[in-house]
């Protein structure tokens, strides 16, 4: 409605010279939203063959105000038959085409306006908007350059120039214009979000932090900034801080699947496996073949009371993963653990074997397979696997962390003890 009032105000002086005292009430009726009365007067004049440009023009404005765009278009076209050179009429017609998503006709109409009067700022602005909407960003660029050249402090022009550069992946230029926009509107939290997001895309973490902090100082409940904060801390591997930021995002109204997804990852990395399952289950329906979601959902369920659901998610992960996926061995090994916990020893052995075939440098899998064979009472084969594990590991190896070395010492000790016990079992079985 504000746009209609501005348009009417700008044309009132021009039209007033061409209308009688009775017709001067047209803008008043329009402003007061007395549409039925206005249409009655206009249609009476049109039916009596005394209609001129202004009658069709106001009828078009009246129909537009009531969102009757097709009728408005027809009225403006009739008005154009009376006066084809009016820039105000062409502006209105172009706006109707734009509202009807007839962008090519809108572009053609605004170009006609500029052929008549190249100083018509509204036509330039609307052309820029349409080029943005239709993703013709290279065509929008010179338009906003021209507008900014004529008015270098106009917030609308500068912000839209930033958006165009952003969509063209010209990040430094986008940052430059967003900062200019921020100088004009320093209290605009959306600008802090855009700058934080762009700096994060360039791994400029300190600047990202600065703009997040300033934006949250203006509005501590602005979910977009909390979401960027979450991603920033996630990229830094500060998973507890990231989890806190994403929880704020959720609290302040952003419950999109992306937020749940990252909350799921952060919960997993902070060993909140139940929380990971809950959030990743929220995210999965929106991206059911997301390998990372399926992987961590499967791994998390294996560590919670949802253990029985783990094989389903891990098999779904395997179904969408490439044969050389780096996580395959982890998944196979986890499947082996799950089936072993469920006392499904054949399946457990099968998946441990798959894990070892995929990643033969993980020698502990030989120990796991030996342990499963022992539980199956296949003692001689179990001994072979324990001895193979011992043959392929060495407590003096320099590789690995302290924990890995300690684990290797522990497993070798367990393997030696198991071999001794199993050899006794085999001896007594053979003696029988």
Verbal overview:
This protein has 432 residues and is an all-alpha fold. The chain has a domain at 1-134: Serine Threonine Protein Phosphatase 5, Tetratricopeptide repeat, CATH 1.25.40.10. 75% of the residues lie in helices and 0% in strands. The protein contains 24 helices and no strands. It has helices at residues 2-16, 25-31, 35-47, 53-65, 69-82, 87-99, 103-116, 121-133, 137-150, 155-167, 171-184, 189-201, 205-218, 223-235, 239-251, 257-269, 273-283, 291-301, 310-320, 328-341, 345-358, 364-375, 379-391, 402-431. Helix 4 (53-65) runs antiparallel to helix 5, helix 16 packs antiparallel against helix 17 (273-283) and helix 23 (379-391) runs antiparallel to helix 24. The longest helix is centred in the last third of the chain and has 30 residues, at 402-431. The protein starts with a helix and ends with a helix. The relative contact order is 0.03. The model is unreliable at 1-24 (pLDDT under 50).
Briefly summarize what is shown:
With 432 residues, the chain is mainly alpha-helical. It has a domain at 1-134: Serine Threonine Protein Phosphatase 5, Tetratricopeptide repeat (Alpha Horseshoe), CATH 1.25.40. 75% of the residues lie in helices and 0% in strands.
Show the helix and strand layout.
Elements (H helix, E strand, L loop, with lengths): L1 H15 L8 H7 L3 H13 L5 H13 L3 H14 L4 H13 L3 H14 L4 H13 L3 H14 L4 H13 L3 H14 L4 H13 L3 H14 L4 H13 L3 H13 L5 H13 L3 H11 L7 H11 L8 H11 L7 H14 L3 H14 L5 H12 L3 H13 L10 H30 L1
């Amino acid at each position: 409605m504000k746009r209609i009032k501005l348009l009417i105000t700008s044309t009132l002086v021009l039209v007033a010279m061409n209308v009688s005292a009775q017709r001067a009430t047209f803008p008043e009726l329009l402003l007061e939203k007395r549409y039925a009365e206005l249409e009655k007067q206009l249609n009476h004049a049109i039916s009596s063959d005394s209609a001129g440009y202004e009658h069709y023009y106001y009828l078009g404005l009246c129909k537009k105000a009531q969102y009757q765009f097709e009728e408005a278009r027809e009225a403006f076209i009739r008005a154009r038959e009376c006066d084809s050179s009016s820039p105000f009429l062409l502006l209105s017609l172009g706006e109707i085409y734009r509202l009807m998503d007839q962008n090519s006709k809108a572009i053609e109409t605004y170009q006609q306006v500029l052929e008549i009067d190249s100083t018509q700022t509204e036509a330039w602005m609307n052309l820029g908007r349409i080029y943005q909407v239709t993703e013709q960003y290279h065509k929008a660029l010179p338009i906003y350059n021209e507008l900014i050249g004529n008015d270098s402090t106009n917030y609308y022009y500068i912000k839209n120039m930033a958006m165009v550069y952003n969509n063209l992946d010209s990040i430094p230029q986008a940052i430059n214009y967003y900062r200019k926009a921020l100088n004009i509107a320093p209290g605009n939290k959306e600008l802090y979000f855009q700058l934080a997001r762009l700096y994060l895309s360039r791994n400029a973490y300190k600047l990202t932090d600065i703009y997040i902090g300033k934006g949250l100082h203006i509005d501590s409940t602005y979910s977009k900034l909390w979401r960027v904060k979450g991603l920033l801390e996630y990229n830094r591997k500060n998973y507890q801080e990231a989890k806190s930021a994403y929880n704020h995002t959720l609290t302040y109204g952003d419950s999109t699947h992306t937020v749940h997804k990252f909350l799921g990852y952060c919960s997993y990395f902070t060993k909140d496996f139940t929380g990971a399952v809950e959030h990743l289950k929220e995210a999965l329906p929106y991206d059911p073949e997301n390998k990372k979601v399926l992987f961590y959902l499967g791994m998390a369920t294996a560590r919670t009371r949802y253990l029985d659901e783990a094989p389903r998610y891990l098999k779904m992960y395997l179904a969408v993963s490439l044969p050389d996926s780096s996580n395959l061995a982890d998944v196979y090994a986890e499947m082996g653990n799950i089936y072993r916990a469920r006392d499904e020893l054949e399946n457990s052995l099968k998946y441990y074997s798959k894990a070892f075939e995929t990643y033969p440098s993980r020698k502990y899998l030989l120990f796991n397979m030996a342990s499963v064979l022992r539980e199956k009472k296949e003692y001689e084969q179990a001994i072979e696997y324990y001895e193979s594990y011992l043959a392929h590991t060495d407590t003096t190896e320099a590789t690995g962390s302290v924990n890995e070395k300690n684990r290797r010492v522990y497993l070798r000790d367990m393997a030696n003890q198991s071999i001794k016990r199993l050899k006794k079992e085999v001896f007594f079985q053979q003696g029988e």
